[in-house]
Amino acid sequence: MTIAKTAATPKKQCTGACGNCTSHAHHERADLGNAEDSPESHAAPTRKQGVLLINLGSPDSPSVPDVRNYLREFLMDGRVLDTPWPLRFGIVHFGILPKRPKESAHAYKSIWTSAGSPLVVTSKNVTTALQARLSIPVELAMRYRNPSVDEAINELHYQGVEDLLVVPLFPHYAISSYETAVERVKEVAARQSPLMKIIVQPPYYKEPDYINALAGSAEAFLQSDYDHLLFSFHGVPERHLHKSDSTGCHCLKVKNCCEVPSPAHATCYRAQCIQTMKALVKRAGISEGKYSIAFQSRLGRDPWLSPYTDHELERLAKAGVKKLLVICPAFVADCLETIEEIGMRGRDTFLQAGGTSYRMIPCLNEHPLWIRTLEHFVFKQFPTAAAARTINERATVEQEIRMA
Length: 404
Fold this sequence. Notes:
It is a single chain. This protein has 404 residues and is an alpha/beta fold. It folds into 3 domains: 45-55 and 115-203 and 367-403, Rossmann fold; 62-111, no CATH class; 208-360, Rossmann fold (3-Layer(aba) Sandwich). 42% of the residues lie in helices and 13% in strands. The strands form 2 sheets. A 5-stranded mixed β-sheet has the order 1-5-4-2-3, sandwiched between helices. Strand 8, helix 11 and strand 9 (357-360) form a beta-alpha-beta unit. The two termini are 28 Å apart.
């Protein structure tokens, strides 16, 4: 776990294996040991505890003005579009916002439900399910738009929370998702609740609970008849890997960099995606040669991680793959990038190129094994956080997990 007080602290020279970096949060992580899975055996805490789940965000509605507001907030984040502010302002306000909101609004309308944004609705349901299993308050925030980080921190402060576990709903470390979410929480907490201690769940890209949840949610699909499984992860610009490389000389510079052990992997998005793929392949028993990796959702002209998903969908079809499965492990809840980009546009690309069967495996969403994974994250940090349950309630939870 990463443990940090919200007040700003001076950056320290790393004394770990890499020895020559100064700026990344993974060097502040503390080993919390192995918390027991039976929280009842621990003494009651002396400080009020709480949990904050945080995801990326969504427009408040699929209207053009709301989509414009969302895109402005998202793209003006210096960890997303990492150019100097004046240049970023010009790109966003004169190059993107005049046309992109209308195009994106059309895409959002195609996935919007009567309850609202799929990402926000699912995240709220997950929060409710987790809260039912815990005796401490659980809040949800989105890095951009609503429910906002400010609102969530205010509510937790009002409830007297002193020790806050932040669980980024991003299994992998990326500057433009995991890092920006964590830093935003720290920034807001330092302003609104300066005595609150922030404890951050590290990336969990190969945690057994997370891999088991992926395998359980995909089991029915993986047991069906298919020719190939494509792992489609959200893409990031290659320059982001260079920026997050703690050694300054490994990521995308060393041959087979993701296969060569390095301290850089602690914050390397690509290496962590590959580890997720390998862990799930091993756990599910998928044959060698029956799966591959790709990266989606690129923006702009700079090189992003490759191969690109849209190119791979066409290539696989033309190479003779007829029945394709696609899984998107970087997303824990279905959203625009999975439902519309992969589920709709991706399907059209594959079928038009000669494929005959295309199925997208849903994200973890509200799967019981995913809820249990989140519960375990909390118990490892706060062993007394279990909600009091009757014998019947405990049996119901265990039955949900067995049936998953």
